Amino acid sequence: MKLSRYAKKIGLCYQSALNLYHAGQIKGYQLPTGTIIITEEDDVKSNHRTHSNKAVCYARVSSHEQKDDLQRQSERLSLYANAKGYVIYKDIKEVGSGLNDNRAKLQNILSKELNNFDILVIEHKDRLTRFGFNYLELLLKYNNIQIEIINPVANDKEDLIQDFVSIITSFCARIYGQRRNKRKTEQLIRELENEEKEKSIN
């Protein structure tokens, strides 16, 4: 079987399968033409899991006042996953800003669950994160996990307002914090200068 066909069969992109072949994790040989032939279809070593269409459905809203929206969002994800024939491994609902990079349930998925599912289903990009989506996508691709977005166009005005308020609050805190830090630094410098002066007098 050609490597390209083999990659498609186990749910990998060609480049990932090629990397496994060069790492010796897939047995095969290369023809003079450059075509790679896989000799054992199931010879993927234990550190590489084959895909089984296990999906994690991840729903998120910014505030507890949106819990009804969270439930409806979760139901839409489940209906979509079932319609696609996916096995739902976990149905996760989380309340937290899309700007918050310390969401416990999402962190648990990324740190402990990567070997247990193949597809992360979200309604649109902002449900996963407001910023840095490409970094998360690269991380998951490296672990052979696909992000599947149901609706590429976000339409969550209320949620966006919540996150905008979070941005303003965060930047105001940083600005005032920087001013306080600047004053503390200046005070520390003055104290050190005074200590040096006292030493020179004595």
Layout of SSEs?
Blueprint: H1 3-10, H2 14-22, E1 28-30, E2 36-38, E3 54-61, H3 67-83, E4 87-95, H4 104-112, E5 119-122, H5 125-128, H6 133-142, E6 146-149, H7 157-201
Parallel strand pairs: 3-4, 3-5, 5-6
Antiparallel strand pairs: 1-2
What does this structure look like?
The protein is α/β, with parallel strands linked by helices. Among the domains are: about 5-40, no CATH class; about 55-150, Rossmann fold (3-Layer(aba) Sandwich), CATH 3.40.50.1390. It is about 50% helix and about 15% strand. The protein has helices at about 5-10, 15-20, 65-85, 105-110, 125-130, 135-140, 155-200, and strands spanning about 30, 35-40, 55-60, 85-95, 120, 145-150. The strands form two sheets. The chain has a four-stranded parallel β-sheet, sandwiched between helices. It has a two-stranded antiparallel sheet with strand order 1-2. A hairpin with a 5-residue loop joins strand 1 (about 30) and strand 2. Helix 1 packs across helix 2 (about 15-20). The longest helix has about 45 residues, at about 155-200. The radius of gyration is 25 Å and the shape is flat.
CATH arch. level architecture of the domain at 54-149: 3-Layer(aba) Sandwich
How large is the share of residues in beta strands?
Answer: 15-25%
Q: What is the succession of H and E elements?
A: HHEEEHEHEHHEH
**Outline, from the CA principal axes?**
flat
* Biggest sheet overview: 4 strands, parallel
Main β-sheet, spatial strand arrangement: 4-3-5-6
Query: Ranges with pLDDT <50 over ≥5 residues?
Result: 42-50
Mean pLDDT: 80
What is the strand tally? 6
Please tell me how large the radius of gyration is: 25 Å
